[in-house]
Amino acid sequence: MKSIEIYGFIGWIASYIVFVVYLAWVFLPESALHSLGIHYFPQKYWALAIPSFFVATIFTVITGYAALNYCFCNNFNSYENIEDKYTRLHNLKKTELHEGLPEVYDIPINVVNNVLYWQKEMIEKYLPKHQD
Questions:
Q1: CB 108 within 8 A of CB 89
Q2: Taking CA 44 as the corner, what is the angle to CA 39 and CA 48, rounded to the nearest 5 degrees?
Q3: What tens digit of pLDDT does each residue of 19-32 get?
């Protein structure tokens, strides 16, 4: 067995043990915990406060991430939505030399519009025909 598998199994078992201890702390009365020899434990307030803070933090991070992405997006009428410095246009000569799958490339917007609106000559020019 690999060490990562052992660490994963130990983490899995430890998470169950921690969860059972948490449930015992939440649901057992203080007298039962004292009879088990446990005299120092946090107030029951933290049983709800910590998970609530955790959920609020996750919600804030997700909302903040979405807001940050929204701030850095281009406007809808920006030319960079169509073509930017990372654009890789189709090179017929280079693709014809390779066997198998062609390179990944961006389809020009005029080709996309012609295919979407069914102009037959553009479809025949840019889309390969199926050889059955």
A1: yes
A2: 145
A3: 999 999 999 998 99
Q: Where are the alpha helices (DSSP H) in 1-132?
A: 3-27, 30-35, 45-71, 92-97, 109-116, 120-126
pLDDT digits (tens, 9 = 90+) for 59-71: 999 999 999 998 9
d(CA 44, CA 53): 15
- 3-state SS class at 107: coil
Token code pair at residue 38: 């446990």
83 Cβ contact partners less than 8 Å away, ≥ 6 residues apart:
106, 109
Spell out the residues 6+ positions from residue 111 whose beta carbon is closer than 8 angstroms to its own: 122, 126
Say whether pTM exceeds 0.70.
no
